[in-house]
Write a structure and sequence with these properties.
Keywords: Membrane, Transmembrane, Transmembrane helix. By secondary structure, the protein is an all-alpha fold. The protein is about 60% helix and about 0% strand.
Amino acid sequence: MTRANLTSKIQMLVLAVMANTATLLVKAQEKAPDLKVDVDMNKGGDAMGGDWMSNPLVWVIGALVLIVLIALVARGGGSK
């Protein structure tokens, strides 16, 4: 066997071992124990209201501000 052929086979073996190890790590996380954690996501009484991020007006204004900032940066200084 030539040296290049042996190196190629060793590389394939290492690659196969790494792929199998990654598969085992992924499968090991499939069956997590049921912790029965109760999380209450409805926190009322915030200063700005609990659902201000779901308001479409906030997203529209945020998008407009982002577009204006990109336009200003793309325009450059403009002093020539």
